[in-house]
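dumping this here so i dont lose it
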């Protein structure tokens, strides 16, 4: 949030707490998604370990779902953009080739 506040943009990184890391046997480092498919695979793994992932980890679930929405936004933007609308939207959203999304406020 500091980066978003100070710079007006931020990467979409998932940084779980130590309990979450231990439960799901993750590395102790931020997870940065390069594609929607990577996000989907990780969500499936979480659901395999915890059938009630959505209920037991509502904050993590909501955050990861919002990442999926951002990937969909990028996909739809690139699919349906016209020159005029892309000029207006690019002032608000800056897309990079890495499939990460930077939101400029």
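and the seq i came up w/
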């Amino acid at each position: 949030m500091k980066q978003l506040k100070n710079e007006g943009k931020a990467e979409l990184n998932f940084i779980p707490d130590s309990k979450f890391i231990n439960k799901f046997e993750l590395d102790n480092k931020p997870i940065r998604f390069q594609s929607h498919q990577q996000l989907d695979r990780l969500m499936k793994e979480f659901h395999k370990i915890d059938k009630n992932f959505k209920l037991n980890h509502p904050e993590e679930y909501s955050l990861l779902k919002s990442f999926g929405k951002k990937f969909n936004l990028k996909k739809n933007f690139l699919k349906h953009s016209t020159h005029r609308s892309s000029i207006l939207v690019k002032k608000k959203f800056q897309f990079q080739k890495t499939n990460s999304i930077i939101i400029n406020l």
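The helical segments are 2-7, 18-24, 36-49, 53-56, 58-80, 83-90.
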